[in-house]
Amino acid sequence: MPARKALISITSASATLFDDKETTGLFIVEALHPYKALTAAGFEVDLASESGSYTPDWLSQQPDFLNGEDGP
């Protein structure tokens, strides 16, 4: 039986935030949660974006936005 496959489409858009220090982009958990659910269900998961790359939103990597399931 062939492997079940899934594709998660993510953004490659990014922009500098108002303070000119940090950037916005992919909010990591928006891809992480479906990735974990799909792989746990036995799917082989690929990620795709418009440019083939992505920039993580810096806020999505801050402790206030992560819970125990989201951390490394």
Describe this structure in words.
- With 72 residues, the protein is α+β, with helices and mostly antiparallel strands.
- The chain has one domain (5-61).
- Helices cover 17% and strands 19% of the residues.
- It has 1 helix and 4 strands.
- The protein has one helix spanning 29-40; strands at 5-9, 15-16, 23-24, 44-48.
- The strands form 2 sheets. A two-stranded parallel sheet has the order 1-4. The protein has a two-stranded antiparallel sheet with strand order 2-3.
- A hairpin with a 6-residue loop joins β2 and β3 (23-24).
- It is flat.
The coarse overall form would be: flat
> Strands of the biggest beta sheet: in what spatial order?
1-4
Q: What's the structural domain tally?
A: 1
Question: β content, as a range?
Answer: 15-25%
What is the radius of gyration?
A: 14 Å
User: What is the helix/strand order?
Assistant: EEEHE
Distance between the terminal alpha carbons, to the nearest Å?
33 Å
Number of strands: 4
Quick one: biggest sheet? 2 strands, parallel
Average pLDDT for all residues: 88
- By helix and strand content, what is the structural category? alpha+beta
Number of helices: 1
Question: Segments where pLDDT lies below 50 for 5+ residues?
Answer: none
The level of helicity is 10-25%
Oligomerization: single chain
Describe the secondary-structure layout.
Layout: E1 5-9, E2 15-16, E3 23-24, H1 29-40, E4 44-48
Parallel strand pairs: 1-4
Antiparallel strand pairs: 2-3
